[in-house]
């Protein structure tokens, strides 16, 4: 079963050096224990570009598709046997990166 | 076999077997939705067949076998439509269910799944009443004054989340158990309180269906985790509260305060059982949690044959103990009531007035103030406090009581 752990942020600026070190240590643990699938930090939402090619003519718009105070700052994709195990890992991730996280299962996980 | 006997047998089996059946089916088929539907269909079949065929010699086994078949039928039906269910088909067979008793912990798994912290509180309550309590969706909707469709959706969404997010079907690990049991107790206490002081202008003042169900489920939990002191404490608290139920509302539908209740009308058997549980917990010497302390407070009240015999210093000592555990303004308010009996209403009022910021929207705060002001002869202020309490109270019997008290002020 795979879960997306989204990091929710409302601050400007990315992780501090201390936070980064803690996140790296956590990532090592995820790999060592077989939970690691993928993870990454995202650049500021102001760097986003929206593209809509549903009509066959690509429309390009500057900025994120949703303007909000809180945004996705990064994510993990983890492998866990069930939600309890995923929540336990996510709780540690939240502590390490010092931000709130949302846990959501992949479809047909 | 009369139709009435058969109907009684179905009702009895429903009380005794529902949770066990749903729990076992959920374990076996790995799907709460299938478990719920198969159990419901088995009972519907019993309602149809037992009056004509007679009640089977072992109703539980008959129901379990019938429910198993219903579940397998549904999986076969869906398996034909949808290949994804093929894997599920590998787990079923026509074996009769395991003998009861061996699988008691399955009900415990079911309770922990329904009360999982990843579900919203109101969802946990609804799911527990449906899956463990066996109440129907319309019954639960009525109990919480929610439209039937909305309640059905809440339960459907919860089952979908449990499945999609893979909320596990198991008893939590020893490290997590105390916190998770306390989450289950919160659900049961909420069901009980809604029954005991029902809100809403169109409901009866006391909803015995809800208090009774909460007690039944707490008894079940106690049988499953007999060593947990807080489970015993909550059961004792519910029993000692329920014992006063009939004395608590007058013939004219007005709430009767504890001091004015006819203590001869209290249920002696429930009180004896509650006292026994409290004594058992005291004998263990283990530091009590909040439900055990609340139960002990109720044990002191129900030990007094006359309100004048109440051991208020004991009540106050217990509230002091509770306040150390939970320094909430609501505990402080209840503690002040004991202070009023020991040190007089003036001392108590000073304590109560300090709670205004936090409790201005909580009607018992105004009820307590109104009563203390009345005892101090400050009629005008008392009347204003009663007005506020009446505005905020949602229970019909309580509103009637408060209105009379206000109108009796000189």
From TrEMBL, chain A:
InterPro entries: Dimeric_a/b-barrel, YCII. It comes from the Bacteria. Residues 1-92 form the YCII-related domain. Coiled coil: none annotated. Belongs to the YciI family. PANTHER family: BLL7171 PROTEIN (PTHR35174:SF3), BLL7171 PROTEIN-RELATED (PTHR35174). This is YCII-related domain-containing protein. It comes from Saccharothrix tamanrassetensis.
Automatic annotation (TrEMBL), chain B:
Residues 16-80 form the RNA polymerase sigma-70 region domain. Residues 111-162 form the RNA polymerase sigma factor 70 region 4 type domain. Residues 76-92 have a biased composition (Basic and acidic residues). The keyword Transcription applies. Keywords: Sigma factor, Transcription, Transcription regulation. The keyword Transcription regulation applies. Residues 180-280 form the DUF6596 domain. Pfam families: DUF6596, Sigma70_r2, Sigma70_r4_2. GO terms for molecular function: DNA binding; sigma factor activity. Residues 76-98 are annotated as: Disordered. GO terms for biological process: DNA-templated transcription initiation. Belongs to the sigma-70 factor family. ECF subfamily. This is RNA polymerase sigma-70 factor (ECF subfamily). It comes from Saccharothrix tamanrassetensis. The lineage of its organism: Bacteria, Bacillati, Actinomycetota, Actinomycetes, Pseudonocardiales.
